[in-house]
Amino acid sequence: MKPSKKVIRLIIFFWFIGNGLLVLSATDLFTDSFFQKKYVMIYFLMFFSTCTVGKLYINFFKINNLE
User: Fold this and answer.
1) CB of 22 within 8 A of CB of 46?
2) Is 67 in contact with 44 (CB distance < 8 Å)?
3) What are the sequence ranges of the domains in the chain?
4) How far apart are CA 18 and CA 42, in angstroms?
5) What is the pLDDT of residue 16?
6) Which of 7, 30, 36, 42 could join 3 in a cystine, given CB atoms 3.0 to 4.6 angstroms apart?
């Protein structure tokens, strides 16, 4: 089953919302800086979720360009 562009857009939208909520829940964004050493685990979560969504996006275009 091939995902459509609509599904890819939804995944990217939810990835963006999820990372935004992760930052907001971990910090008081308006008073604390997000770039502190105690947030290293959140950096890893955001990095790997970005890599996963990026790989999905790249594979989507590889599959669609072959046909």
Assistant:
1) yes
2) no
3) 5-66
4) 12
5) 95
6) 7
